[in-house]
Amino acid sequence: MGRLTRRRRIVHYSSDTGPRGREETIAAEEPLEIRLGGRVFSITMRTPGNDFDLVAGFLVSEGVIGGPDELSSMRFCAGEDEDGRQTFNVVEAGLGEGAIIPDPSLDRHVFTSSSCGICGTASIDAVAKTSRFIVEPDSGRIGVGTLLGLSTTLRSSQELFGKTGGVHAAGLFDTDGNLLCLREDVGRHNAVDKVVGWALREGRLPLRDTVLQVSGRASFELVQKAYLAGIPVLCAVSAPSSLAVELAERAGLTVAAFARGSSVNLYTHPDRIDTDDSVDQQAPAHPAVAAPNNRK
């Protein structure tokens, strides 16, 4: 899988066999520097791959762009390792007409870690953004049986997780349960940005009749990213945070969480979910995730 993974010799211990050496596949994590107009806008830690989608989605999430015409160009630029080889870890983005040029005082001059997409924001005021898209009350209506099947579809499509056990996933679905786009990354916010960036580059924003299924919890940052992309439903395998629920309530998004097997909690705007839809038609319950076996 190229730069997506690394191989490493480890010691595996089992009470049955004791310590044994073996090779494991681990998910790659590298910095990505995002530049606007020749200056650094942000540095984020991510799994290499789909970097243009990541940059495009990040700019949507930051309120800089809202359509493909507002992103005039993207290119890899300076960035070499000690041997002079291109690392592909620096992307210069060109903004087009209609883009909102960020205030230099709000630039993220610190690393954004793979676990937190907003902890590097220069000002807490910059966290609260206004979406260019209205989330219509009638958009994103989906049957509960279809909704409950999304996590299984997502999990079965996670190739990188299957090899490493160390990445998050975000999947964009239509309301019939069809998977439109899946992205994996060590950072859950990066996975969502990659999905949103794909949608922007495909000219699909706003994502009105879609559901964003994520492999972890529903945090404030993920609700914000869904809101800024016009996604009406966010469904998570794990719990939401209080701030995520408050933002979703105000923004008109449906937050569904603990979506496992035959049950789900609907925290905001439950009217979008048709609970008369037969749960018997859903996919099998989300399987227990075992540690990956990476031995050759």
Characteristics:
5-stranded mixed β-sheet; single chain; Ubiquitin-like (UB roll); 22% helix; Cytidine Deaminase, domain 2; disordered C terminus; 296 residues; 2 domains; alpha/beta
Write a structural description.
The chain is of the alpha/beta class and 296 residues long. The chain has two domains: 93 residues, Roll (Ubiquitin-like (UB roll)), CATH 3.10.20.10; 133 residues, 3-Layer(aba) Sandwich (Cytidine Deaminase, domain 2). Helix content is 22%, strand content 29%. It contains six helices and 15 strands. The strands form four sheets. A six-stranded mixed β-sheet has the order 10-9-11-12-13-14, sandwiched between helices. The protein has a five-stranded mixed β-sheet with strand order 5-6-3-4-7, covered by helices on one side. Strands 1-2 form a two-stranded antiparallel ribbon. α1 crosses α4. The radius of gyration is 20 Å and the shape is flat. The two termini are 15 Å apart.
